[in-house]
From TrEMBL:
Full protein name: Carbohydrate ABC transporter membrane protein 2, CUT1 family
Origin organism lineage: Bacteria, Bacillati, Bacillota, Bacilli, Lactobacillales
Gene3D superfamilies given in the database record: MetI-like
Keywords: Cell membrane, Membrane, Transmembrane, Transmembrane helix, Transport
Membrane-topology descriptor: Multi-pass membrane protein
Length: 284
C-alpha cells in the first residue's frame, strides 16, 4: 500500500462526513424550493417538505405584486452593482500603491489595514449611525453604497495578486517611459483578471447580503434592500400591510428570487474564482 493512500475505514469516514456536509447544505435549499412552489394552504403544513405539495405559483405572485418585491430587488441590484464596482476600483488602486517598496509608512499602513479586518462591525454601529446622520446619508442610496466601500481583504488580495506579476514586466514598462497610470491600466489590471473577478464577486455578495448597514441607516421602505424586506417578512413586521398574513410560500418565494442574481454572478465569475482565491491568498 502506498504511503499517501488512506486506510479503508478512514476513506469511509471521509465520504460519510462529506455526505453529511452535502446534505446539510442541500436539504434546506430543497425545502425552500418545495415550500415556495406549494399552494398557500399546503405551505402551512408542519414538517420538512422535499417536494412541492399542490404545485402553485401563488407565493411568487403575492410577493411580487402585493408586497412589491420588485422595488427592493432593483434597489439591491443598483446598490450591489455600483458598490462592488467602486470597491474593486478603489481596492485595485490601493493595492497598486502598496506595491511601491519606497512608499512612506508602508508597513504601518499594511498593519492598519490588518487591524481593520479584526474589528467586529457590530462594535461600530453607533459611530456608523452618528457619522451617516451628520453626513446626511440616512435613508439615501449614497449611504448604502459608500458604507463598507473600502475592504481590507480586497486590498490585500489584489496586492498579493499584483505581486505575482514578474518584476521584469514593470521594469520593461518603465524603460519605455510608461506612466504609473499606464502601468496600472495596461499591465496590472489586464494581467490580474482572476483577482479582479474574485474581488468583484466577493464585494457583490457582501453588498447583496448586507443587513447590518441597511438596518442601521434605512427606515424608508422605498429604499429597502432584499435583506431588509426578507427580515420584515420573516418577523412579520412593517412590510406587511394592515392585518394581512404572509404565508410561508410567499416568504420562501422571496428567498428564491433573492438568490437568482447570486447564482448568475457566480456563473459569470466561476472561471476566475478558484485561480483568484488561491493565488491571491498564497503570494506574499
Amino acid at each position: 500500500m502506498r504511503r499517501n493512500q488512506l486506510f479503508l475505514p478512514i476513506k469511509i469516514l471521509n465520504y460519510f462526513m462529506l455526505l453529511l456536509l452535502f446534505l446539510s447544505m442541500i436539504l434546506p435549499m430543497i425545502n425552500i424550493l418545495s415550500i415556495a412552489f406549494s399552494s398557500n394552504k399546503a405551505s402551512m403544513l408542519p414538517g420538512i417538505s422535499l417536494w412541492p405539495k399542490d404545485f402553485s405559483f401563488e407565493g411568487f405572485r403575492y410577493i411580487w405584486q402585493k408586497e412589491n418585491l420588485w422595488r427592493p430587488l432593483l434597489n439591491s441590484i443598483f446598490v450591489s452593482t455600483i458598490g462592488s464596482g467602486l470597491q474593486t476600483l478603489f481596492s485595485a488602486i490601493a493595492a497598486f500603491i502598496l506595491l511601491k517598496k519606497d512608499l512612506p509608512f508602508r508597513t504601518l499602513i499594511l498593519s492598519f489595514i490588518m487591524v481593520t479586518m479584526m474589528i467586529p462591525g457590530e462594535l461600530t454601529l453607533v459611530s456608523i449611525y452618528t457619522l451617516n446622520k451628520n453626513l446626511g446619508f440616512i435613508n439615501t442610496y449614497r449611504g448604502l453604497i459608500i458604507n463598507g466601500l473600502v475592504s481590507g481583504f480586497s486590498i490585500l488580495l489584489l496586492k498579493n495578486y499584483f505581486q505575482s506579476i514578474p518584476e521584469s514586466v514593470f521594469e520593461a514598462a518603465k524603460i519605455d517611459r510608461a506612466s504609473e497610470l499606464k502601468i496600472f491600466r495596461k499591465i496590472c489590471l489586464p494581467m490580474s483578471k482572476p483577482g479582479i473577478a474574485t474581488v468583484s464577486f466577493i464585494a457583490f455578495i457582501s453588498k447583496w447580503n448586507s443587513l447590518m448597514i441597511p438596518v442601521t441607516i434605512i427606515t424608508d421602505q422605498k429604499k429597502y434592500t432584499l435583506p431588509l424586506i426578507l427580515k420584515s417578512l420573516v418577523f412579520n413586521s412593517s412590510s406587511v400591510s394592515g392585518t394581512d398574513f404572509v404565508s410561508p410560500n410567499a416568504i420562501m418565494a422571496a428567498i428564491v428570487i433573492s438568490t437568482i442574481p447570486l447564482i448568475l454572478a457566480y456563473l459569470v465569475a466561476q472561471r476566475y474564482l478558484i485561480t483568484g482565491m488561491t493565488l491571491g491568498s498564497v503570494k506574499g
